[in-house]
Design goal:
It is built from two helices and twelve strands. By secondary structure, the protein is mainly β. The protein has one domain.
């Protein structure tokens, strides 16, 4: 694979090495409750739900795919001890990576975090998928570089991340249904992998 090249028009996709959660970041969340009372999404339309992998580095065998994106739970349920910056909280259809509501989920909110991972073999084209919750509601989406980097304390324990944070041009569209129980996405790929952090209220089935 020939990654890290300029896209058409001279646009460069930036890459960022995995950022280890700092002590300060870890202090932003309360200890996990240990409960398994989490509403797990049904993945469809080109998405598959998996257990947290050992790594989501680029080119990881079994995770680089021209047909599939992957969804796994990162952490939760736990209670935020500081506000969490997110890019989107409102339902809508066809909004892109340029959409940024600069919203904050307040401290004291119990959340669960899920991650959508995409890594095309050929570094070209798109990947789509859908995740639907039976009872939980999606209360925030994180898909821009700054907020992905500032929320690394939500990363799944035991999973090594090598983030190439999504550029705004990579996210072709997102649909968040009214009632916020279903998310659809389409990612455009150049020489990098992509990811979306999905925050829910953890509502148990």
């Amino acid at each position: 694979m020939n990654r890290r090249k300029a896209l058409g028009g001279g646009l460069m996709l930036s890459t960022t090495a995995w950022i280890a959660p700092s002590v300060l970041a870890l202090d932003r969340v309360a200890a996990a409750t240990g409960s398994v009372a989490t509403d797990i999404p049904v993945a469809s339309g080109g998405a598959t739900y998996i257990t947290p992998p050992a790594t989501i580095a680029e080119g990881t065998p079994g995770l680089d795919s021209n047909t599939n994106t992957w969804v796994f739970q990162e952490v939760g349920p736990f209670t935020l001890t500081a506000g969490l910056a997110v890019n989107r909280v409102s339902a809508g259809s066809g909004f892109t990576g340029n959409s940024n509501e600069n919203a904050t989920i307040p401290a004291g909110t119990q959340i669960c975090s899920f991650y959508v991972h995409g890594d095309r073999l050929d570094d070209n084209g798109t990947l789509t998928g859908t995740m639907t919750f039976g009872n939980a509601s999606i209360i925030g989406l994180i898909y821009r570089t700054a907020q992905l980097n500032s929320s690394t304390y939500l990363q799944a324990p035991g999973t090594t991340y090598f983030n190439a944070p999504m550029e705004v041009s990579d996210l072709m569209w997102l649909d968040l249904t009214p009632g916020a129980n279903s998310l659809r996405w389409s990612m455009r790929f150049g020489p990098a992998l992509d990811g979306i952090r999905v925050i829910t209220n953890c509502c148990a089935p």
